[in-house]
Amino acid sequence: MPIRIPEQLPAQDVLLGENIFTMDSMRAANQDIRPLAVGILNLMPNKIETEVQLLRLLSNTPLQIDVDLIRIDNQAPKNTPQSHMDSFYHDFSSIASKRYDGLIVTGAPLAHLEYSEVKYWDTMAKILDWSERHVQSTLYLCWAAHAAMYHFYQVERVLRQEKISGVFEHEVLDPHNELMRGFDPYFYAPHSRYGHITVDEYNQVPGLSVIARSADAGAYIVSSQDKRKVFVTGHPEYDPETLNDEYCRDVESGQAPQVPVNYYPDDNPAKNPLVRWRSHGSLLFTNWLNYCVYQNTPYDLNLLANGASPKR
């Protein structure tokens, strides 16, 4: 089934070019079903690129999904036209009374800032608390995963001197967890972060468990027992060239970044990246939508705040 996105959203042309079926509001209104409502709180500076990446992964499911793009403040974002934000994004205040089956909170380039120094931290904390009452399951990516761990459990990340950057091998620790259904015992996924929380620190939080980890990059997927919080410390949504773009950007800015691990053949940036994470990235999003969202959300979203049992 398709995802419903706003008409004229630039991602629509990209997805249609990849033979991914999207639907506008008028056509969706004629579907006699209750689609899943999914919000995307996009904290990345290049909003359009991130939209395409996430919508691509959300599309690989038989479920119909209505997507709301959410902004955290009114400041003009870097690398994204203000007109795009005004046309396609909702201010948080405008959707605060709404309930969602699922919410995705992206990463953000805020690695070297303490949470209290982030200009929108108060709003971020408010949204995290709001999600407890208004969202069935929230998927936190990269920086957002660490931010949520700090907010909900007071677990502090450690900032490394060198960035964890590359495509790392991961091991499935709990093959019976629904999020891992269909995964190979070992798989690859990209990371791009300075922050780090150890596997033991995650596992010491009651109700949380690390279900996939890397010997080199640490915990990758962490889930709450009730499936309402899923923390992903890497970037399963990344395009083939995203790590390359980040590396080239850092080089051009005068930094001396390490070459992303296991990304270029022979670790040679002159060669095209070796892509080997996209199938498992797609599977992760499909499993999250099915087992954490669809199978657990009440048919009437107004029952979310009451802790209603699944109605599917």
TrEMBL record:
Q: Where is this site: Important for substrate specificity?
A: S192
Q: Name one GO cellular component term.
A: cytoplasm
Q: Which residues form the active site?
A: C142 (acyl-thioester intermediate), H235 (proton acceptor), E237
Q: Which GO terms label this protein's molecular function in UniProt?
A: homoserine O-acetyltransferase activity; homoserine O-succinyltransferase activity
The metabolic or biological pathway listed in the UniProt record of this protein is:
Amino-acid biosynthesis; L-methionine biosynthesis via de novo pathway; O-succinyl-L-homoserine from L-homoserine: step 1/1
A Pfam family: HTS
Which of UniProt's keywords are assigned here? Acyltransferase, Amino-acid biosynthesis, Cytoplasm, Methionine biosynthesis, Transferase
Reaction catalyzed: L-homoserine + succinyl-CoA = O-succinyl-L-homoserine + CoA
UniProt-annotated binding residues for substrate: K163, S192, R249
Which enzyme type, at the first EC level? transferase
Per the UniProt entry, what are the Gene Ontology biological process annotations, in alphabetical order? L-methionine biosynthetic process from homoserine via O-succinyl-L-homoserine and cystathionine
Residues in the signal sequence = none
Site residues (Important for acyl-CoA specificity), renumbered to this chain: A111
Could you tell me where this protein is found in the cell? Answer: Cytoplasm
EC number(s) per entry: 2.3.1.46
**SUPFAM superfamilies this protein is in?**
Class I glutamine amidotransferase-like (SSF52317)
Q: Which PANTHER family match?
A: HOMOSERINE O-SUCCINYLTRANSFERASE
Sequence similarity: Belongs to the MetA family.
> What is the role of this chain?
Transfers a succinyl group from succinyl-CoA to L-homoserine, forming succinyl-L-homoserine.
**Annotated NCBIfam families:** metA (TIGR01001)
State what protein this is by name: Homoserine O-succinyltransferase
Q: Which organism is it from?
A: Salinimonas sediminis
